[in-house]
Amino acid sequence: MKKTGVLIATCLIAASAVFWGCRKPTDNTQTNPTDGFDKSAMLTNYADNVIAIRYLNMREKVAALKSASDSYAATPSSATQSALLSAYKDAYLQYEIIAPFQFGPAETALLDVYLNYSGGLDYSFTTAGELTGFSVDTATIESNISSGSYNLTTVSRSNLYAQGFGAIGYLAFSSDAISRMTGNTARAKYLGDLVSRMKDLVDGVINNWTAYRTTFVGNTQTNVGSPIGNIVNQLAYQLDMVKGPRIGWPFGKQSNGTVFATKCEGYYAGISKELAEMSIAALKDSYTGGGGLGIDDYLVSLKQDALNTDVLAQFDMTIAKVKAIPGSLSAAFTANPTEVDAAYKEIQKLLTLLKTDVASATAVQITFTDNDGD
Amino acid sequence: MNNHYIKALVICGIAITSISSCKKKDKNEDPSVRAYTVPTTYSFGNENYASSTTRVKMAVELDSYLKTANAGSTTISLLDSKITGMWNNTGNQFSDAGLNASGLNLSSVTADANLYKSYADSVRISNTGTAASQGTAGYIVRGTNKIIVGPRGLEYGQAYTKGIMGALLFKEAVRLLTSVKTMSVKDTAAAQAAWDEAFGYLAVPANYDTSVTYVNTDPNRPLLWGGYLAERGRDIQAGGIIFAAFLKGRAAIGGYDRTVRNQQVDVILDKWEQLAAAAALAYVTSPTTSSAAGNLGTQFHALSEGFGFILSLQHRAATSKLSAADFTTLNNIIHKDFYDLINQTGFTDLVTAQNILKNTYGL
């Protein structure tokens, strides 16, 4: 009888082995690690304490920008211009803070594309004449103003380079901006239209988040298009933007050292360095869930404490190195290449951590690059 | 031997046989089913899929040749003799001598062969060093390289490659596997031959492993559809499911197991078609994202891949979930001028295509 028991047990093991052997091989994909971490609580923190608050701040800053730009357009003077510069800088820096949340309603509205077009990561940055990086298409802007007929919603390169923060910067802060604005109602109208469009887009995204929040909080998967997948992808994407269009490319990293000083972010306002610094700080803010439950805590729950420590330290190191660049970025590209290069190297290290290590630890596939090699 | 012992052995035997064929408990109508085991690699002692593997390699070599035009910013001309020779396998144009000597070619097994040949030819013809714009064929910068597009933005090289993935590889796999379903269960030799040839069109190594990341220098790496199993099929576990079904169905043929054999045909065709749809979905979606907006090279490359994958749905099995009407809608959208598609406010047409693919295939 005992023997039989053993035999039956052996038989069951054999049978189950055969049974398991027949199962479909699993793909090495997005099965969520069973970590006991409350991902839904983390997403709730992102939705309510991070994203919602930062969007509402953005709404306020854009409203302030609107009133400052209206005053400037009505009475262009160095006083209204400097008030506008302050509002513009506030709104632009706040935009860097919300840029890591370019998914869901922001992605549907193409918020990043209309507010702060960067030309894309897959675009050669080797010739001066081409519209790349944070170029401003002054020719299209001028022709839009003189013709008075333009459709700002069209998704074409020249149209995108004729609106958003870059175009507003040109109309407000380029060298003879005040004199060209004076008495020019068409120019004033165009500036007004650009800021109004910015306001409408931000309002639209905020309104659509109300409905999207349920989907966002309820989806704890990490596959392509999932909230966690999107958060991690954006960490990598936005930092790739710092490495590329924000600092590396205008510095000449794609053009054998040929500098394109005018193609940096916020060029006309001279705030490129502050924007780059804020962009990285904003990514740290997103990474840490604004101090609440964030990707950092998720990593710790996955027993990736060491990686988390490295990432946090590298964030601080990178921000410090960008801060250490003297003067404005566009001047530093030629005046202080050593400091720019030192910052660039730290950005690369941080990018590897986020794009490779964090993505892999969280089982997130980085999807914004077409890396299929064909 | 005592009674319990015998009883246990019998029970054990029954348990293992019934489970090892991996069958759901159904009434076994076919009395001639015999025990068989499903291997973990595609090795059955008599498998042979050289013909389909050869055609896949030919398709890849022609693709690589066409892509030489994409390198860098200078114009690199292509030769008609080379393209036509590879297409028909004349004049020893392949660098792999085995392909030249195979006696096989791409042209005779591709549906709408003239169309796909003309896409390959058009890469050469439009590769003139002219910058493309709406209405004018030429090149468009893509990263540090370029793509060769027609007057409506279609990248001809992708139309060729993704096109024949459908019109040759997938079409043949559907034809072969569907034919197996109609074969007598005793006709194992014919069924195994057809099954093997279909497997070759998937283009994965016999010891395919979804957990392995194949580097592009690995001579055993998956090619074309095989590569897409991982590239666009991860979320739907296409690699694991299709490969397992190929193993199981092939084993079932040897076991005279018609039910399992036919089930695996359905599993493969259903998943393979879903893979084509998943790839199509990715490529009609990425051009609408903020990271691609305004970047014609990236957008048109993706749309051209999507073009090929949508065309491959034309060769779907009769059991497909995709209605004729929805296919027509998809086909009409992807045949539109790409310059118009990417300039539509809200990307209306591409969103329509996305929704059809998502809803039909549960993506």
Can you give me a brief rundown of this structure?
The complex is a heterodimer of chains A (374) and B (363). Chain A is mostly helical. Chain A has 17 helices and no strands.
Q: Care to describe what's here?
A:
The complex is a heterodimer of chains A (374) and B (363). Chain A is an all-alpha fold and 374 residues long. Helices cover 66% and strands 0% of the residues of chain A. Chain A has a single domain (34-361), classed as M75 peptidase, HXXE motif (A middle domain of Talin 1). In chain A, helix 2 (39-74) packs antiparallel against helix 10 and helix 3 (78-98) runs parallel beside helix 13 (272-287). The model of chain A is unreliable at 1-34 (pLDDT under 50). By secondary structure, chain B is mainly alpha-helical. Chain B is built from 14 helices and 2 strands. Chain B has helices spanning 3-20, 50-67, 80-88, 97-100, 113-126, 156-182, 188-202, 225-231, 238-254, 258-285, 296-312, 324-334, 338-341, 348-361, and strands at residues 138-142, 145-149. A two-stranded antiparallel sheet of chain B has the order 1-2. In chain B, strand 1 and strand 2 form a beta hairpin. Chains A and B meet through helix 1 and helix 5 of A and helix 1, helix 8, helix 9 and helix 11 of B.
